[in-house]
Amino acid sequence: MKALAIGTSDFKEIIETDAYYIDKTLFIEELMVGNKVKSALFPRPRRFGKTLNMSMLKYFFDIDHVEENRKLFKGLAIENSPAWEHQGKYPVIFLTFKELKCTSMEEFLEKFLDFLVGIIENNYPYIEKIEGLVRSEKRFLNRLFDFNASQSDLEKTLKTLGAILNKHHGTAPILLIDEYDAPIHAAHTHGYLPEMLNFMRNFLSAGFKDNEHLTKGIITGILRVAKENIFSGLNNITTYSILNRQFSDKFGLTQPEVDRLLNDADCTEDREKVANWYNGYAFGGTTQIYNPWSILNYVAHIPDGLRAYWVNTSSNELIQEILPKADKATQDILFDLLKGEKVAAQIDEFTVFNDLYAGRKTTVLGLLLFSGYLTAEDRIDLNTYELRIPNQEIKSMFQNMLQNYIGTSITQAKDTVLIQSLLEQRANTFAEALAQYVKTSFSYFDIGKEGNTEKIYHAFMLGLLAHLDKNYYIRSNREVGYGRADIYFYPKDTTNPKAWILEFKKKDADDKGDLKSLAEDALKQIYDRDYLDEIKAHGHTEILCMGVAFEGKQVVCAFDR
């Protein structure tokens, strides 16, 4: 089998080194044959092949190296496509922002200028000798090469450079802008988001809005940043996200592509297990897509077995920062998803950072969906989709993040006396173990936060029980009887009569009673609101009812069965 060029995103390098390449060249056909869209935005999760595809487009269309680049496509699908007539016919402007992550706007403008000069010198060494340049174009180039270009110059780069190349070649360029949102994420992290949004709005508008020096424009990124901030007025840009069927198989790997890869690698591993770990993305609602980074790394390290690769390629900082701020409704959805359930929910297709940090449910779920942490199987109605966690790799990440959130190890706790005593309905032992565990293992910084404690306990218990989801039905905050029980669960084995109901109460400053009476109130609520009805309906008769009251690191349980 040919070598896997994992991490290499330059199409030419992969082909010339005879590395393994999964043919995605029909992306060109879908863009150029029958598609009248002049500009397109492709939001896709990280490491799903965006930069490699953009690099492939660059070499295909490039008018300056026609014969040299033609050899790169020998034997690939595009050779037999009607789109082949476009090979080597256009000047190309290809800018990738993936490395332009800066700590200030000043640093970004300085690095972008340096980056831009390098792009022009390496790709258009003839640019200063082009005949017919007007005075403003000559001055623009002089300011660039003297490193005296203003922010306004940089914002007009696409339009001015496009006009110059159009003048030289007699045909309008193709614009390729890769990872446009990378500097936006960095600006958000370092506190200069408004300045960056203003720059990107002006930069993209100059290049894509009413630009006569444009044949076709392609933009990629992870998120679709809100229209009012970035794409204001750019009505000529069509978005093809993971929710659209068009282009759904052009990023990521399809089942036939993975089958060929595994056959070439002589992989004898259970293919269903491999799919459970790395497949599961339903792009366009139908096309089943594998995470390319993970499946390629798996094939490169088959003796190491199935493990998480994609989720370990970044710190997931934005996700980890947002999830604890999510409102209770959002956390309930995430807990249900973690249990392997499908959840119907509305999502925002645009990302508004202020809404993210307010924990707005539709925005948080949209972030998780478009970033690759969730997938959408079916569209139910406008902006409402059936969501699920795509595969075992992502599920393991959510479990790890839950562990970090509560400041303890669920994996270690699941085999201790804590979970065993609960399953065996030894209530006194469980109450003692829970009190000791919270005292010694929880961070007071976490559980001492005003207004947040109940979520920590709820998350902790659901995290413990998530490991039981193969054999138990686990329900959280579901309507039952005359209210919503915090947690109840029962065996999938209908011959097992046991079941459990847990209700949590947090002691507030104005509560007059002690923790014991508060726990008894929680227990009483189970009976008063008829939480037992649904469990009894499933034939379970040995039901452990438990009220759990807490204040800081102090926990008291009241129970009955």
From TrEMBL:
<protein>
    <recommendedName>
        <fullName>AAA-ATPase-like domain-containing protein</fullName>
    </recommendedName>
</protein>
<dbReference type="Pfam" id="PF08011">
    <property type="entry name" value="PDDEXK_9"/>
</dbReference>
<feature type="domain" description="AAA-ATPase-like">
    <location>
        <begin position="6"/>
        <end position="231"/>
    </location>
</feature>
<dbReference type="InterPro" id="IPR012547">
    <property type="entry name" value="PDDEXK_9"/>
</dbReference>
<dbReference type="InterPro" id="IPR018631">
    <property type="entry name" value="AAA-ATPase-like_dom"/>
</dbReference>
<keyword id="KW-0614">Plasmid</keyword>
<dbReference type="InterPro" id="IPR027417">
    <property type="entry name" value="P-loop_NTPase"/>
</dbReference>
<dbReference type="Pfam" id="PF09820">
    <property type="entry name" value="AAA-ATPase_like"/>
</dbReference>
